[in-house]
């Protein structure tokens, strides 16, 4: 039983850390603010509960486990909301998604 | 496995810091700051568990909250300065 | 290593001209200091530093930044006088401290007389497992009373100087519909943040926590509410004129507990006089006293936030 829990915990930690690393790589490599927001929010919002699940499987059930559940729920609720607020602010601030820019360039080249 | 997770988190944090310094627009930097905060929460949780700290879950929960409130505050600050600038011009 | 990072962040904060980046750097500075405190095994202090420095302080600085503008003005005066004053003071401090025992030295007087007494006797005297709360609220209760009064005075001063905020009627934060998702999430979360604040307040006897941290978290919940709903709605939830009264009530609770002991004939703030059993008296005293502290800290931080965020921009 404890071996099974160890394996599950290891898998959860591995999956979570892979997601976090790819999130970081995505933030660095993707072009444009809105693409980076994809990388940031999606990977963090799933990676964090996975890593916390891996931690929870490693410890005895206690108050700390409950608190880790609370952290996971909190991050799952607030991370998308923060990204939404950020994208709304960026849109109001004048940033435009790359798709808009590409469509605009295609229209111009087809007109010519 | 915990050690590998810590290495992964630190690597991700370095990449995020790189974006925070290099991001052309200010929204890149705010996004990087928000992500950095989430990684910090994870670092406190994993590091606290690995190092055997007592009470690390409280601090991680607190910082998750503060990260969210801080991001919303920064965005509200941008919006308010933009609307102040618009009021000045009219 | 943390100290090196701290030094680097402080240096960067001083040299940068863009004040917004400076505010962000200060927030990182507070976080690093909290990590340093954790490294020194001071969990309560780290908790308070993270809550105040990385949270409320950053928000207040952003609110004031909105009023004064984003870039630092060029220095006009000769910095040589200031530099010499700082150098002389720093040298004097280093000279004065050169005789002091090193951090963690087991032969220091504090480690040999004061600390062992607390470590051995606090549980027996007060019945509270968290040594920090026992020292803060019981052994050094008078000192904490002074701190609470200082916090309350600071809040009063800000309210008198800046006003306690009236909603600007021409506040339009963009289209009202856009914000509904944020409002939904925030409304679902705030009750849980308040529950966490109450947990920190009352769990301070056993783990990290206590009145100061709980007051800050309580105030942060209302700051969050204000950020997404605007000041007019928030002023209906917590009217500005309540705040000085709540702050005074907190200080009054603290002083009142002390006076109760006087009425029974024991010294001021002697909790053992509050109940039949001295340990129960200690528990009751610490509970009430932390409640007073939390109330005052909450009302002062909310008042300062109201004062800063509703101020008209200086023309």
Structure description:
The complex is a heterotrimer of chains A (112), B (90) and C (315). Chain A has helices spanning 2-29, 33-58, 63-93, 98-111. Chain A is mainly alpha-helical. Chain A has one domain (2-111). In chain A, α1 (2-29) packs antiparallel against α2 (33-58) and α2 runs antiparallel to α3. In chain B, α1 (2-22) runs antiparallel to α2 (26-51) and α2 (26-51) packs antiparallel against α3 (56-89). Chain B has 90 residues and is mainly alpha-helical. Helix content of chain B is 90%, strand content 0%. With 315 residues, chain C is mostly helical. Chain C folds into two domains: 1-71, NADH-ubiquinone/plastoquinone oxidoreductase chain 6, subunit NuoJ (Four Helix Bundle (Hemerythrin (Met), subunit A), Up-down Bundle), CATH 1.20.120.1200; 130-167 and 177-315, no CATH class. Chain C starts with a helix and ends in a 6-residue tail after the last helix. The A-B interface holds A 9-10, 13-14, 16-18, 20-21, 23-25, 27-28, 33, 36-37, 40, 44, 48, 51-52, 54-55, 58-59, 63-64, 67-68, 70-71, 74-75, 78-79, 81-83, 85-86, 89-90, 92-93, 95 and B 1-2, 4-5, 8-9, 11-16, 18-19, 25-28, 30-32, 34-35, 38-39, 41-42, 45-46, 49, 57-58, 60-61, 64-65, 68, 71-72, 75, 78-79, 82.
Overall shape of chain C: globular
* pLDDT < 50 runs, ≥5 residues of chain B: none
Estimated helix fraction of chain B: over 70%
Query: Total number of helical segments of chain B?
Result: 3
- pLDDT below 50 for ≥5 consecutive residues: which ranges of chain C? none
Strand tally of chain B, please? 0
**Biggest sheet of chain B, in brief?**
none
Residue share in helix of chain C: over 70%
Pattern of helices and strands of chain C: HHHHHHHHHHHH
What is the average of the pLDDT values of chain B? 85
């Amino acid at each position: 039983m404890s071996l099974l829990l160890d394996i599950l915990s290891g898998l959860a930690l591995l999956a979570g850390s892979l997601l976090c690393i790819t999130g970081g790589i995505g933030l660095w490599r993707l072009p444009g603010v809105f693409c980076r927001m994809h990388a940031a929010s999606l990977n963090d919002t799933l990676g964090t509960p996975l890593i916390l699940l891996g931690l929870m499987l490693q410890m005895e059930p206690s108050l700390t486990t409950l608190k880790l559940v609370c952290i996971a729920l909190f991050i799952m609720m607030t991370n998308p909301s923060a990204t939404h607020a950020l994208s709304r602010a960026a849109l109001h601030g004048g940033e435009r998604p790359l798709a808009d820019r590409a469509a605009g360039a295609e229209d111009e080249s087809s007109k010519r | 496995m915990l050690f590998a997770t810590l290495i992964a988190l630190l690597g991700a944090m370095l990449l995020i810091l790189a974006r925070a310094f290099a991001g052309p627009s200010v929204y890149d930097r705010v996004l990087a700051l928000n992500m950095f905060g989430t990684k910090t929460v994870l670092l406190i949780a994993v590091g606290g568990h690995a190092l055997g700290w007592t009470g690390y879950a409280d601090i991680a929960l607190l910082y998750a909250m503060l990260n969210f409130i801080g991001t919303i505050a920064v965005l509200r600050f941008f919006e308010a300065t933009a609307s102040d600038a618009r009021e000045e011009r009219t | 290593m943390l100290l090196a990072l701290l030094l680097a962040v402080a240096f960067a904060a001083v040299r940068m001209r863009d004040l917004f980046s400076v505010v962000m750097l200060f927030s990182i500075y507070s976080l690093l200091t909290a990590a340093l405190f954790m490294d020194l095994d001071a969990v309560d202090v780290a908790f308070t530093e993270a809550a105040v420095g990385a949270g409320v302080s950053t928000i207040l600085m952003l609110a004031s930044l909105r009023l004064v503008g984003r870039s630092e003005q060029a220095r006009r005066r000769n910095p040589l006088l200031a530099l010499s004053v700082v150098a002389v003071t720093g040298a004097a401090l280093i000279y004065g401290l050169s005789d002091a025992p090193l951090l963690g030295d087991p032969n220091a007087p504090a480690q040999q007389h004061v600390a062992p007494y607390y470590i051995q006797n606090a549980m027996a005297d007060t019945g509270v497992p968290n040594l920090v709360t026992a020292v803060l609220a019981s052994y050094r209760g008078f000192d904490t009373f002074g701190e609470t009064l200082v916090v309350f005075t600071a809040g009063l001063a800000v309210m008198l100087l800046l006003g306690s905020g009236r909603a600007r009627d021409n506040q339009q934060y963009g289209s009202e519909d856009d914000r509904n998702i944020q409002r939904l999430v925030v409304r679902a979360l705030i009750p849980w943040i308040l529950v966490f604040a109450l947990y920190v307040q009352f769990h301070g006897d056993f783990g990290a926590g206590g009145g100061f941290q709980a007051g800050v978290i309580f105030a942060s919940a209302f700051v969050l509410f204000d950020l997404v709903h605007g000041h007019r709605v928030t002023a209906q939830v917590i009217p500005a004129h309540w705040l000085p009264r709540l702050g005074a009530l907190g200080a009054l609770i603290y002083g009142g507990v002390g006076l109760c002991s006087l009425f029974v004939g024991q010294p001021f703030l002697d909790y053992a006089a509050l109940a039949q059993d001295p340990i129960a008296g200690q528990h009751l005293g610490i509970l009430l006293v932390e409640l007073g502290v939390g109330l005052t800290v909450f009302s002062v931080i909310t008042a300062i936030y109201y004062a800063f965020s509703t101020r008209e921009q200086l023309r």
